[in-house]
Amino acid sequence: MRIARNQLTAKLFKILVIVRTKLLILAVTVAVVVSGCGVYSFSGSMGSGIKSIAVPVFENKSLEYGISDELTSGVIDRFVTDNTLKVLPRSKADAVLEGLVNRYERVAYTFDENDQVQEYKVNISVSVKLIRSDGSSMWEEQAMIAYGIYKADEEAEEDGKTRAIEKIAEDIVNKTIRDW
Description:
Blueprint: H1 2-39, H2 45-48, E1 52-54, E2 59-60, H3 67-82, E3 86-87, E4 95-111, E5 117-132, E6 137-151, H4 157-178
Parallel strand pairs: 1-3, 1-4, 2-4
Antiparallel strand pairs: 4-5, 5-6
Helix pairs in contact: 3-4
């Protein structure tokens, strides 16, 4: 009976050591994860001091009527959806995003065996710069390019334009909030 009791005590001691070791490993892992998350942030605006942005209507150097209004609206909508920066009037914003539509074009993209166009591609090129309210430049891109593809027989050019605007707006917002 004494031997069985000693063996049982030894087994319990081993189990307690294993449990204690696993708890210690778990506690260290949790501490590392929590401390790592406390330092890192996905929001780029925290380190820049920028909490709000103004987006005046983009200038239009292309021949496409209304593209600057549509693109400006797309960029503002994207900032609102992202919700990292507040969109405010120029006089109240920490930074201003200025843009210029350099080019808008629709080109044939794919063809069938009879050389008939199957898809078209809408290309949009813009110059964009982000300026702090004190006038200092935060970033500038001379040629941000995006495109939208649409089927020639089912969709309208407006669909390709919408896709291109959505993509370039996403790129602008990502560059603004994630590159700091």
